[in-house]
Amino acid sequence: MSRRIVRYLYPVASAMGLFVLAVSGPSDVLAQASPSTSHGPRPIPYPVVPPADFQRALAGGTRSPSGAPGTGYWQQWAHYDLHARLDPIAKRLDGRARIVYRNNSPDTLPVFFLHLLQNLHAAGAARNEPQQVTGGVELHRVAVDGRALSERRDKEPGYRVQGTILDVHPPRPLEPGGAVELAVDWSFTVPQSGAGRMGWSRDNFFFIAYWYPQVAVYDDVVGWQLDQYLGQAEFYSGFGTYRLTVEAPEGWVVMGTGALENREAVLPDPILRRLHQAEESDTVVHVLTNDDFGPGKATRRSATGYLRWQFGADTVRDVAFSATRESLWDAARTPVGDRDDDGHTDYARIDALYRETAPRWQQTWRYAQHAIDFLSRWTGYPYPWPHMTAVEGGGIIGGGMEFPMMTLIGDYNARRDSGLYYVTAHELAHMWIPMIVGADEKRHAWMDEGSTSFNENQARKEFFPGRDHDDPDRQTYLTVARQGLEGELIRRSDYHYPGPAYGIASYSKPATLLVALRGLLGDETFVRTYRTYIRNWAFKHPRPWDFFNTFNEGAGETLDWFWRTWYYETWTLDHAVASVTTQRAASRGPVETTIAIEDRGMAPMPTRVTITLESGESIDREIPVSHWLTGARRAEITIAGTPQRVEIDPEGVFPDVDRTNNLWERQ
Predict the structure, then answer these.
(1) What is the CA radius of gyration of the chain?
(2) Nearest Cα to 651, choosing from 523, 537, 477?
(3) Neighbours of 611 (CB within 10 A)
(4) What is residue 299's DSSP assignment?
(5) Predicted pLDDT at 12
(6) Which stretches of 74-197 are assigned E, i.e. beta strand?
(7) Interval 98-115 mean pLDDT
(8) β partners of residue 598
(9) Mapping DSSP to helix (H, G, I), strand (E, B) and coil, where does residue 579 land?
(10) Phi/psi zone of residue 323: left (φ > 0), alpha (ψ -120 to 50 degrees), beta?
(11) Which of 392, 347, 389 is nearest to 368 (CA)?
């Protein structure tokens, strides 16, 4: 692997002396360039140059310079018929899959790749976090177009398992426009806490995820994305249609991704009536209570002892399901906007499944109801699916984990009620990214987690008004940045430095940067552009440069200085009020004040200054980023009058590492 050498361009302004810079506001603002101060010369952010594979996609017309998909954009598609049989006593899952994979690319594919994510739990598996060893996936059959394959030797058709990747060499390559049928039978022991994101708890609850062979993404930029699953960085999944059948013992209630297509065959009449009532109710309906547990009450009876639950989902990137025999079930509906543009509000059902050992969950239906409603409004993209189900999984998970239409969340018994709302809003915000906007979480976690943290914080503001809900992420980022422990956002997610670097680069810093970007562009431009990005890339696969280009287009200017500074580097912002000097031009002349602003950091940003005069009048001035991009370290603002207070960025939207020097007050 070659090391990328970064060359910084240093300014030559030191040879030019001082100069006057025109800045926003009246002509009484002067700026001085002095790049050789005690803070040292600064690098100038150079243009963002996308990698060669992305540039090829631009040239080929599958991506566009505006950030939207190109006229030639394509993506692969799959139809999954999945069958799972769950044995709660043995903690085993037996699965069968029939996958019809359609090649929409212009390329001939001589080999296919699938993810076997449960192999994270195989003996000797590569991991970046400790995991329970359960043996991983046991493959019983692999077939292509009805022809059974054997483990591959030499160049014959067959299959091979390499870590969490299954590669399948078919008898014939798959031509553009063609389709192939893959069939796999397998089984595995369900880990108690699989990668902290699935498993079982107290013999009365299972949450099954990462459980079936899933075709890897083949896209127009990188081709096959075949990064191993190591346990930390998450997933990159293609879209498709799913038919899921789960066999579970009678008395075990199953909820899964998709619409339950045979509810009358598995749910008793009293439960069915309550479920129908919930789908028309704005307030909670207790679909399943303590009095309903057990075969014949929670579920119908079966002559075999097992029931078959059938789900169907269209245009999703994954499926997961829960099975519980002692969980309460609360439900209600929530508005999601006008999905079909018929002028009428559409609704989705909200489900909360939780055990009595999680009493705080009695309000989760309300938390989820608000979050889906708000996020549909905030993103401008109505929640597209029939239900959103939050499942309590204390004993498996501490925080939460998202799946299409499903989320697994801890019990939150030891935390404040607001904490359960926060995590619920966060996991449900993932329904937009990456479940709708299909970003590559594996390599660019910030595109997913950062946007989701930002969206969560906006939901918090409406549910808990009167607080700055963006600030905790900002302070978390700044704490780590001050210690020099962060890594570049653009770094691949599995390769962050040990310690807080992965979390900061994935969650709090990119969330903070969206706040800064909103402050930079203004609310109207930011919201319009953000919604354009979501709409353009709904059920598609954006890359970081699509995100950058979308905002360049929305802003009407190239923001490469912003992307280079904040996403490619770990530079920090530190604007300071260096001095405030008041004097009279003549013995009886007007008072004139010179305010010296210094840029003591490495991150160029506009400097917004609010000056409060002794009279109480307030004056706003801005030193544009273009001044700092010359390499200047100092600017002077000259005003008439005597200031009582001078403050940089009083609204606190930009992440300044030292806000103690942002404020000057007359003593």
Answers:
(1) 28
(2) 523
(3) 21
(4) B
(5) 28
(6) 77-87, 92-102, 112-115, 138-144, 147-148, 158-162, 165-169, 179-189, 193-194
(7) 98
(8) 576, 634
(9) strand
(10) beta
(11) 389
3-class DSSP string for 212-271: CCEECCEECCCEECCCCCCCCCCCCCCCEEEEEEEEEECCCEEEECCEECCHHHHCCHHH
H helix or E strand, kind and range, residue 509: helix 509-521
Residue 613, both tokens:
């005069």
Q: 325, 293 in Cβ contact below 8 A? A: yes
Amino acid identity, residue 543?
A: R
- pLDDT per residue over 69-98, tens digit each? 999 999 999 999 999 999 999 999 999 999
Structure tokens at 140: 């019983």
540 - beta bridge partners?
437
Q: Name the nearest CA neighbour of 255 among 389, 368, 83, 91.
A: 389
Structure tokens at 292: 């309903």
Six token digits for residue 487 = 């890594």
Cα of 651 vs its chain's centroid, Å: 26
CA 25 to each of CA 302, 393, 552: distance values in angstroms, whole numbers, following the listed order:
77, 56, 25
* Measured distance CA(97)–CA(337) in Å, rounded: 35
Which pLDDT band holds residue 39 (cuts at 50, 70, 90)? low
- Residues in the chain, total: 667
How many Cβ atoms are within 10 Å of 268's Cβ, its own excluded?
Answer: 16
Measured from the Cβ of residue 1, the count of other Cβ atoms closer than 10 Å reads 3
